[in-house]
Write a structure and sequence with these properties.
This protein is α+β, with helices and mostly antiparallel strands. The protein contains 11 helices and 24 strands. The protein has helices at residues 2-14, 106-109, 118-123, 164-177, 199-203, 209-213, 215-238, 255-261, 284-302, 328-338, 365-379, and strands at residues 21-22, 31-33, 39-43, 49-54, 57-62, 68-72, 79-86, 89-104, 127-134, 152-154, 181-187, 271-275, 309-312, 345-348, 390-397, 400-406, 412-414, 422-425, 432-433, 435-439, 442-446, 455-458, 468-470, 479-480. Strands 2, 4, 5, 7, 8, 9, 10, 11, 12, 13 and 14 form an 11-stranded mixed β-sheet that branches. Strands 15-16-21-20 form a 4-stranded antiparallel β-sheet, with no helix packed on it. A 4-stranded antiparallel β-sheet has the order 19-18-22-24. Helix 10 links the parallel strand 13 (309-312) and strand 14 (345-348). Helix 4 packs across helix 11 and helix 9 (284-302) runs parallel beside helix 10. It starts with a helix and ends in a 7-residue tail after the last strand.
Length: 487
């Protein structure tokens, strides 16, 4: 009898668990994407039938040999709250509306607490139809599936630590479209775009493959620096100096795609917003390939087609230069502008709200507002102006150059008496400051030092003095008409 009882216990413990589990993205307070056949997925005992119910729908799926199951709901209209039932489990307070992924580096991670007027903003953040989800930071060598987090209702107690850009974008958007909005925040300060891109994409592109191939050498260099660090510390102590910081371990290409994007797949979304580029500013030419490749990577893996992707152009930063010159940050902004060639993309220009001494400008309200304007116009088809002037063409007219623009809105205007920020060059490629005047929907640029213009640049600096806008208040994007290599 004792042996039989022991055998029965062993058999029970060895039997597969019948517990049905759901992806950790599905929690109380969640938002499902409206008008989309939203995926629902999880795990169960191999071969088990899983029943899912919501808003009168009843769906079922069978777990495969690995215990994985998935199904798609019929599209739902905006509204709620609903209950989502999966087996015996009930997910409560489920809204249906618009879901956006919000990603990037530190300026996307930057919280409401650290932005302008935090106390005032938090006190006013009573938005029960705005829901917030933060993906914890995680590096991974291979794609992971679980996210230890949960949806939260936006309120004064929850919004302070949330991404400011994401919140202000979602707040303005929710007010404009009047349906629930869900924001999935997944970002990490100081990170380059290759960390957010799948390894196969990097390795399969000749321009990006060195990012993967060179990583072992970077690790060896880091190990060597770590080995020398105690000696450097001892020397600093002996000389009465501050101890040097320990060398930071390089992050592997694709590690954040694996740890912070892959586990979101294939959750139903409307689109994504992105604020990043500072960490790639010294490699702008490569970014022209890398950034579009990352966007395509996300779109392909999400399986929702070319979903809307809005991004923020780098703000003005660092000391202002007295003469025209080259600039890594200007080149990165140019690479970002070129990414607009991808379908269904948009760019928020913030060349006017940066901070010379702080890479993290505190005015995140206007960043969110400009991203929201793009989404309202391009995604939700509202009749609003959403962009400032963007270079269209250059036409040389004798000793002058005429610049035409897209997105002039109600017309071009200068903030101030004199239009600033334009430089002009002849075939000698020597840029000088130019006289610039608005003429209808164009700007005429000239200089007595340039008899035969060949190229014009605008706001081409780390921290340019520039003041061209449209009458709706959107700043013109920095640009260059040339493709000359740096001297």
């Amino acid at each position: 009898m004792r042996f039989a009882s022991l055998l029965l216990a062993l058999l029970v413990s060895a039997a597969p668990s019948a517990e049905t589990k759901l992806s950790t993205l599905f929690t109380d307070g969640m938002v499902l994407q409206r008008d989309l056949a939203c995926p629902v997925w999880g795990t169960a005992a191999p071969g088990a039938e899983v029943a899912v119910e919501i808003a009168g729908q009843k769906k079922s799926a069978k777990a495969d040999a690995d215990g994985k199951w998935s199904l798609k709901l019929d599209p739902l209209a905006a509204g709620g709250p609903h209950e989502l039932k999966i087996g015996e489990r009930v997910i409560k307070d489920v809204l249906v509306g618009e879901v956006w992924v919000c990603s990037g580096q530190s300026n996307m991670e930057w919280s409401v607490n650290a932005s302008l007027n935090p106390a005032e903003e938090k006190a006013a953040a009573v938005h029960p139809k705005l829901r917030l989800f933060t993906v914890p930071k995680k590096q991974a060598d291979a794609p992971v599936t679980d996210i230890p987090s949960a949806w939260k209702v936006c309120g004064p107690e929850t919004v302070g630590s949330f991404s400011a850009v994401a919140y202000f974008f979602g707040r303005d958007l929710q007010k404009a479209i009047d349906v629930p909005v869900g924001l999935i925040h997944t970002s990490w300060g100081g990170t380059a775009a290759e960390l957010w891109t799948k390894n196969q994409i990097l390795a399969g592109n000749s321009e990006l493959k060195p990012l993967v191939d060179d990583f072992p050498a970077r690790i060896k260099a880091w190990e060597a620096a770590v080995a020398k660090h105690p000696e450097a510390v001892a020397k600093a102590k002996a000389e009465g100096k501050a101890e040097p910081r320990a060398p930071g371990k390089p992050m592997a290409p694709s590690c954040l795609y694996n740890g912070m994007i892959a586990p979101l797949l294939p959750y139903g979304i409307r689109g994504a917003i992105w604020y990043q580029g500072e960490s790639n500013a010294s490699r702008a030419k490569q970014y022209e390939t890398l950034f579009p490749a990352m966007i395509k990577n996300w779109r392909d893996d999400w399986g929702q087609g070319e979903f809307p992707f809005g991004f923020v152009q780098l703000a003005n930063f660092m000391a202002r230069k007295s003469e025209p010159g080259e600039s890594n940050w200007a080149e990165l902004r140019d690479a970002q502008t070129k990414t607009l060639a991808l379908p269904n993309t948009g760019m928020a220009v913030i060349i006017d709200i940066g901070d010379e001494k702080d890479i993290h400008p505190k005015n995140k309200q206007d960043v969110g507002k400009r991203l929201s304007a793009w989404a309202q116009a391009q995604v939700y088809k509202k009749p609003v102006v959403y962009s400032g002037p963007i270079l269209d063409a250059l036409k040389v007219e004798g000793t002058s150059a005429r610049i035409s623009f897209k997105h002039v809105g109600g017309g071009l205007t200068a903030k101030g008496d004199v239009l600033k920020g334009f430089a002009i060059a002849g075939e000698d490629r020597a840029f000088v400051w130019a006289d610039a005047k608005i003429d209808g929907e164009t700007v005429v640029v000239s200089s007595p030092k340039v008899a035969k213009p060949a190229a014009v640049r605008y706001a081409w600096a780390d921290n340019p003095e520039c003041n061209l806008y449209n009458k709706e208040g959107f700043p013109a994007s920095p640009f260059r008409t040339d493709a000359w290599p740096r001297k």
